[in-house]
Amino acid sequence: MVKATISADIVSSTSLSVEELSLLQSKIRWFLEGLSEKSQGKNWGRLFKGDSVEIFLFDPHEALRVALLLKTLVKKTFSWGKETNARRELFKKYGVRLAIGIGEMRTADRQQDIMDGEAIYFSGRLLEKATKEKATLKRSMLFGSSNPLLTEEINMMLGMLDVMLRNATSRQNEILYHKLLGHNEEEIAKELKIRQSVVNQHSSSIGWNAIESAVTYFEKLNFEQ
Known about the structure:
The protein is α+β, with helices and mostly antiparallel strands. It has a single domain (2-219), classed as Alpha-Beta Plaits. It has helices at 18-38, 63-76, 86-94, 118-132, 148-166, 170-180, 185-192, 196-206, 208-219; strands spanning 2-10, 44-48, 52-57, 96-109, 114-117, 141-144. Strands 1, 2, 3, 4, 5 and 6 form a 6-stranded mixed sheet that branches. Strand 4 and strand 5 form a beta hairpin. Helix 6 packs across helix 8 (196-206). The longest helix has 21 residues, at 18-38. The mean pLDDT is 94.
């Protein structure tokens, strides 16, 4: 059966202070633990080398939503003033650079901490190539599969989403994060202690309707073809 993996790394992690990186790592670990608990252990992930993440997803249809949740989680963690240096500006814009891989998996054993198979090869190699080429300056979300037409189609969609999210504020990312979790605007307003009209305004500014349509479309794809 086809599975999905996500390979990701924190953009310009060296621009963060020790305290900032530690906070971000704790939030990512919390996210990965929640991902596993919600799926009763079918999904799992790991944080390694301090700034790299790998996620295994039993159902490939979850991949885009989870990828966007990870990106918005990282981008909402810090609020920024007007003055940031070039490297911190890269982190502010992109948060994480990530690649989604769809394919067969020979092994995905959490106990032994092993991922091996087509999906992780796709996501891992795409991320490695993007890192070497410094492609984060152009785009930070990539997709790979054995289906060339599907790969081209999804990469076009990810390119548009990338542009939409690039200049999103910390607050907009926070609202988008909750929206991706399925929370309605009233629930988000209560959680963030802001007016519902503010939630609605930020949702419109970030293009939530288009993002939701992309996620819904991805969730209906037939990856077995």
